[in-house]
């Protein structure tokens, strides 16, 4: 369990469209741009080793994109360096946060002052349960979706996964747009995230493409 007092008030952020990190989940990343190599080097020098994943948000009249107000911070738990200086890393989700303000400075990457208030459940020791989860019905829907999109799955692993691992892994892995990923991130509970996920899957099965949650 991560205590609120252990979390810093300012973190580096990585605005990567469509990349979703959720608490207690793992996100592999390939880091190669110089500014993000610098971000990783600086993060590894801190006790927390945190990087905030945030969806970029368009700002009318500006070339540089803004940031959505809610992101998720991950701790660097695995990393390896390639011969040409790139990194393969894994972030383990620690807690969502709310962006207070972006910090201007001399780093090549973006940093934000953040608040961790309101996300206590993210930092609990065990996985979150979904008391209203009809798993059989959900898996039948998922089977139809995978068949329609010619996707492969390890069904035994899906059946054996706990509620949080199943819902969060699918939220991260399925090919939804950035705004839909943001809606999944901001879901206040696992049950709400599962309902959002079902809505997105059903929309795609009816032939919809692009972001639904706009």
From TrEMBL:
The Lon N-terminal domain, residue ranges: 11-205
One of the Pfam families matching this protein, by short name: LON_substr_bdg
Domain of life, per lineage: Bacteria
Coiled coil: none
Classification via SUPFAM superfamilies: PUA domain-like (SSF88697)
Signal peptide: none
InterPro entries: Lon_prtase_N, Lon_prtase_N_sf, PUA-like_sf
Entries under SMART domains matching the protein: LON (SM00464)
Name listed for the protein in its UniProt record: LON peptidase substrate-binding domain-containing protein
UniProt source species: Ponticoccus litoralis
């Amino acid at each position: 369990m991560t205590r609120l007092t252990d979390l810093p008030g300012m973190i580096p952020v990585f605005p990567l469209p469509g990349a979703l990190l959720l608490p207690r989940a793992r996100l592999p990343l390939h880091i190669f741009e110089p500014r993000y190599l610098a971000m990783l080097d600086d993060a590894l020098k801190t006790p927390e080793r945190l990087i905030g994943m945030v969806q970029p948000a368009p700002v009318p009249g500006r070339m540089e994109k803004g940031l959505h107000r809610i992101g998720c911070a991950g701790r660097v738990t695995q990393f390896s360096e390639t011969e040409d200086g790139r990194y393969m890393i894994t972030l383990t989700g620690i807690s969502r946060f709310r962006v207070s303000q972006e910090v201007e400075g001399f780093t090549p990457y973006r940093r934000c002052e953040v608040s961790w208030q309101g996300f206590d459940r993210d930092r609990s020791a065990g996985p979150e349960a979904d008391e209203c989860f009809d798993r059989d019905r959900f898996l039948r829907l998922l089977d139809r979706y995978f068949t329609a999109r010619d996707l492969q799955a390890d069904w035994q692993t899906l059946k054996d996964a706990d509620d949080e691992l199943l819902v969060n892994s699918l939220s991260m892995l399925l090919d939804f747009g950035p705004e839909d990923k943001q809606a999944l991130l901001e879901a206040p509970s696992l049950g709400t995230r599962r309902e959002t996920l079902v809505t997105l899957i059903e929309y795609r099965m009816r032939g919809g493409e692009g972001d639904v949650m706009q």
